[in-house]
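Ticket #4471: structure output looks truncated?

Reporter: J.K.
Steps to reproduce: submitted the chain below (299 residues) through the standard prediction queue, then opened the result file.
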Amino acid sequence: MHPVLEDLIGLLRLERIEENIFRGDSRDIGSPQVFGGQVIGQALSAAQNTVEGRVAHSLHSYFLRRGDVNSPIIYEVDRARDGGSFSNRRVVAIQHGRPILNLAASFQVPEEGLAHQAEMPNVPGPDGLKDLTDVAKEMLECIPSVLRRFMTEKRPFEFRHVEPLDFEVPKILPPRKHVWIKAVDALPDNPVLHQNLLTYVSDYELLGTATFPHGLSFTRGSVIMASLDHALWFHGDVKMDEWLLYAIDSPNASGARGLARGQIFTQDGRLVASTTQEGLMRVVDPDGWPPRSKPGSQK
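Returned output as attached by the reporter:
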């Protein structure tokens, strides 16, 4: 297996300290804090380790503080409920004695029922599209030095954008994009692992879509962005070593926050997951407007 992907799988396998307490390591992927998808994926993994015979169908999380890539993260699981068909778990991720993430996840005994789904967008397939790291390397001079490693470092997933990327001069665009995603190597046939990997990767690409109508880009240093929350719904089995289309749009930005929604489809058009995320979007203005937060604030 590709070493970067193997490392991620190991990262999502937590060490059990006590019955409901787990510990996970962190990785520096070039961002200024622990990648949010890592913390959500590990929190879901902690919850899954306390559930049997039931499959995760949704999770809702809030980011509370930046994570420290140089320290492990402790995950405390509260077995909130085990009913006849559903189980609920609450997870707190802790670093340096303080919570950095709250997550609630719900699990269900598999059963049949009514079914319908949204149609898959009619966009080109992944063949012939360039990977994100290849595009970024071609435009290195347009990317601030502090972001180059984050944009160009090899990842455990391929990201192929349907719409052309331009790091040089951000343009005013409609608030939507489509990205094909696939693991860089074959994976074991383990549904829990594939759910964890989907949770991890679902934190990529979302929030930036909310900047499109404003001609801003975090790669140019014109806007400060930070995820505030993240929700994910699993609609069916998913294979992360097969191409998935991440269709994202942003219906709103207001109050220095942006909202983004995502739908994840298999290549044959099956909707396997949906996401939403709200995040801070604070424009950086050298003249001091809009006003920045006071020293010591969390965001």
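Triage note (M.O.): checked the attachment and the full token line is present. The longest helix spans residues 36-48.
Status: closed, working as intended.
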